[in-house]
């Protein structure tokens, strides 16, 4: 006879009452975050106060922003410490439903944003067809537009275990390596390029170390993730990529460009002459050939740099976005369609575009606006953004 779960103390979600696995931090049923002490029996009230830090990589995950523009009649903003509704901006109640429109709030890990400065912002979203968010991002920026910014995006590989935890830990670790200005080398372009490549490789290595550190040593399918990092200093952009998360340069005018080159079966097919639209929609379109994680054999990223002579956008993203606009010009058309130079609004618009196009994979969009004369290279470190409250197949 099956035991009565209420009698044996099986933990349940405090929001929807669904059963929870041992050690679960998020409900698989509704996505609500689960605090340390398990609830047993019927659903209980959930505190709106943030839980005390336990050192877990997800403890400081920021709260999400709206993915759709609110209606003309906006409700009063939520009280300090309360979460905003992702649909209308109203206050989310203790039961995780909006007190204004009744919409169910996503978990804090399912949809979050960062905006370290007015000219840099990002959104990381679970997407409508996925059950959890395995993407992650970590951003830095100087307060003055055109000074210095860091965009890091990791896409946790979906067929590995705990990739959602690992990707966030890895993104934050890479960001810390890139907090300091990039080196100038010994004064020659070759020396500078070599020194910069070492720093970008160290960022990938730090991300890999963080991923391994949160991976269960006994895991039969250890966590893994793709990696892309972009550093903007004045009008010079430097990037590093591994896997199939990408960096793009999307100028307001002039040719747009994909900066990174994927480590994937699809990219190998493209290099062999297969049309991009065929390779990127084939059976192995998202089979990657390099990744970060305990079982990774090569974690050295491909590094590049260029000076940006025009105004435009630097974009780091996961395949949840470029799935629907892979060509640089197609992606720029979506940027133009959004009709804004506000990076937070544009990031939300691109996430909404990807969800409307199908939302088959987690979506991360991180943007830096380039439209100011280059200021002097910052020689100070950057403060972190405020926190508001077989071959693996990526996706």
Written account of the structure:
The strands form four sheets. Strands 3-4-15-14-10-11 form a six-stranded antiparallel beta sheet. It is globular, with a radius of gyration of 21 Å. With 395 residues, it is an alpha+beta fold. The chain folds into three domains: 1-46, no CATH class; 65-105, no CATH class; 111-370, PPM-type phosphatase domain (Phosphatase 2c, domain 1, 4-Layer Sandwich), CATH 3.60.40. It has helices at 5-8, 163-177, 189-213, 265-271, 276-279, 319-322, 328-338, 343-356, and strands at 11-12, 39-40, 111-117, 120-125, 135-141, 148-155, 224-225, 227-233, 236-242, 246-251, 257-258, 292-293, 302-307, 312-317, 363-370. The two termini are 39 Å apart. Helix content is 21%, strand content 20%. Helix 2 runs antiparallel to helix 3 (189-213).
Structural class: alpha+beta
The Rg value, from CA coordinates, equals: 21 Å
Looking at the structure, the CATH topology of the largest domain is: Phosphatase 2c, domain 1
- What is the CATH superfamily label of the largest domain? PPM-type phosphatase domain
- Strand proportion, as a percent range, falls in 15-25%
Using the coordinates above, name the CATH class of the largest domain: Alpha Beta
Return residue spans where pLDDT drops below 50 for at least 5 consecutive residues.
Answer: 1-10, 26-32, 36-75, 376-390
Domain count: the total is: 3
Note the total helix count: 8
Which architecture of the largest domain would the CATH scheme give at its second level? 4-Layer Sandwich
What is the global morphology?
globular
Query: How do the strands of the widest beta sheet line up side by side?
Result: 3-4-15-14-10-11
Q: What's the pLDDT, averaged over the residues?
A: 81
SSE order, as H and E?
Answer: HEEEEEEHHEEEEEHHEEEHHHE
For the termini, the CA-CA separation is: 39 Å
**Counted beta strands:** 15
Name the helicity range. Answer: 10-25%
InterPro entries: PPM-type-like_dom_sf (IPR036457), PPM-type_phosphatase-like_dom (IPR001932)
Pfam family, one: PP2C_2
Organism: Nocardioides caeni
Protein name: Serine/threonine protein phosphatase
